[in-house]
Amino acid sequence: MTNDEYLLLNQRVEMYRMIRGKINSLENEKIEENIIDSFSLILLDEDLRLKITDVAESAVNEQISRLKKELEKL
Length: 74
Hints:
This protein is mostly helical. 84% of the residues lie in helices and 0% in strands.
């Protein structure tokens, strides 16, 4: 293996680790708690909090899906 091949392989491994770390963080995220803490949503009615939580969960799931596609390309 040449030095350039080694560097390219190492770069791909680091990219994989970074993406995998993002996925793990997103999958372990306590979305509702963080949203309520971040935006003081405690002041909103329950149905409105649920709407915002659903949108956030959908966005997180979409991001996870995109990151997994990036992993497949590696």
